[in-house]
Here is the input.
Amino acid sequence: MDRDLTGAQSVDRALKLLSMVGRQGERGLGLAEAVEASGINKPTARRLLLALMRAGLVHQAETDRRYYLGEEAYILGTLASPRFGLLRLAMPSLTRLASKTADSTFLSVRRGAISVCLHREEGTFPIRTHALQVGYEHPLGAGAGSLAMLAALPDDEMEAVMKTNAPVMEARYPLLTPQELRRHLALARTRGYAVNPGLILANSWGVGVAVRHPDGSVAGAISIAAIDSRMQPPRQGELGQLLMAEAVLVEAALAERFDRPGSMARPAAPTPAKRRSFK
Here is the structure.
């Protein structure tokens, strides 16, 4: 057996591929893309994907030969949702926001120094922005929800994330210079909501608010995105207030969940309604 398919290294590589497949959502992942993005050679990547397929965690479609999450991944995710079900708890808020604003709403979560979009709820306004889709990843700070999460971190943690992300921010997001990012972080902490004024795509603007666990740590963010003509300053404030109100409800649901017997206990914290400011 190949040495690189033995022991912990093989497990790490298989889990890396599983995560990559999952992040692609309905787009699926091609073998060549997996090899290029992971740095794993093609024979090894194929063998690991076959192992994941045997376990039911990955499925390869016969039509396009791309890899998608399998039935077992769905089952495991369903079983985990009562303990980690932020999406389930946030769905009523996402639906209400999309209905009230007619714009697309999103739930994102933090994974280290990046933000991952978990859900997109479409609004009814006919012109939509497609800058953010389910499974998309951005460095923390790029995008409204991502910016809100970064602003909600303690200062030392925020600085560490910015240092980690500095190379990719410089390469992929030239408008988000360190000075500009710090300015928007300061504004987010003052307002209680973050605004992305077309810094990722010129005609795609967004407003986002962080959602916290009962101990004050960042659970994720809810956000609204629309074309620039629908995001003028007065409406930014209106959307920010709507998001903050819904964030309070999601945080209350999180607090209730963690208070249940058998849940993952966290330290007590002030009620969500009292901690909307990032200061």
Notes: The chain is about 50% helix and 20% strand. The beta strands are 58-60, 67-69, 104-111, 114-121, 137-139, 194-201, 204-212, 218-227. The chain has a mean pLDDT of 86. The chain has two domains: 3-76, 85-274.
